[in-house]
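Thread: quick sanity check before group meeting

JM: Hey all, I'm pulling together slides for Thursday and realized we never actually wrote out the predicted structure for the chain we discussed last week. Dropping the sequence here so it's in one place. If anyone has concerns about the input, flag it before I start.
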Amino acid sequence: MRKLGVLFAITMLIAACGGSAAPSGSQGPAATTEADLDITGPVTITLWHALTSDPQKGALEAAVKKFNETNGKGITVQAVVQGNYTQLYQKTLGAIQAGALPELAHAYESFVADYTKADVVIDLDPYVNSKKNGLDQASKDDIYKPYFDTNRFAQYGNKLLSFPFTKSLALMYTNEDVLKAAGVAVPKTWQEWEQAVQKATKKDANGKTTQYGYAGTSDASYFNAMVLSRGGKIMSDDNKTVAWDGKEGLETLQMLKRLYDGGYAYTPTNFDWQNDFAQNKLAFTFASTSSRPFIAAAMKTPVAWNVAAPPGGKTVMFGANVAIFKSTPQKQLASWLFIKWFSEQDNTADWATKSYYMPVRKSAANNEALKTYWSSKDPQGKQAYDTIGASIPEPNVRGQQDIRDVITNMYVSVMTGKATPEQAIKDAGTKANQILKDAQ
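JM (edit): ok, ran it. Output follows.
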């Protein structure tokens, strides 16, 4: 879902902006008075985002409209679509070079790491901790820790450089009707899962597969999720080398290769798997939690299905965040107040019902409207929400965007028979570690 590339050299941008990283030993929020100001007059701020279609685009526009009408401080947010995430990233880099940034932008962690190197991102810790405009301790505790963790950048003094916005999880989608017809229970281990995929697959008299056990994806996030669920790690403890090239990563590639070679797995075109899943032609896939409405819409007749963490119980948490760029004290504060409002219990619950992204607060589960929505229309949404605590953020050090492409290429080379799992993962690990070294 996030197959993005670095589109031009960030080093050129850094040279143009003269930015530098924060000292690695700095701790805690810097002293500031800007976070404690009042909004003294009408302020207009612009949010660049990548929500190009409904329901997400409409949900954001509705939230922005509500904030503009109710904030009582004269703050007006203008939400502007900048294309998909790749296009948004490219346009933001261009805006940095041109000195024409918006006040805040939708961004993955790897984007924020690059923008911070250019010295244009503000540290949100003073705003979060402001006694006047910040979050109280109960609110800080209410926001899931992985959401804070993914927005803290060890590479930049562990500062909070972005805030959770459009959050999702990588989960296993299971068609229970297909499993029941195959006489298979929902698997709890990877060995059971591989066997379930094989048993749920159907072939005709000529050996052609007519029903698949698994629809695969080359997206790096799902490979990472499988590694984590096997007890592995994505990065070394010091974040200087990758760790997915160990035995857990190799076992993952070997398992998937067996399924592809045996005709039990296939790689769908775009989102064709959603129709296959909805028509009982597919048992398993791994996808974002935000895929739920599209699957439900594809079901012409009722299908029993659920979402859960992969076997082993761990998965990756992903989805973009929002960063505030350096501008004026009034605009920076106005940007923070919008982010703060967006994360409040009832607002994040409303966002969850309309956008299918995850609410950022634990207390959202107490919102009556969300509870009713989950129970009557979206039980899989509650299943996804209950998995947030088992999620681990993907790495946010510089170079990760290129490493995602390395993982994708590794996956494709193995599944198409161009390389063995052993050689592919060894070569990919070497390439990834060089990227990390060059990005320091």
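AS: nice. The mean pLDDT is 91. The CA atoms of residues 80 and 258 lie 45 Å apart.
JM: adding both to the slides.
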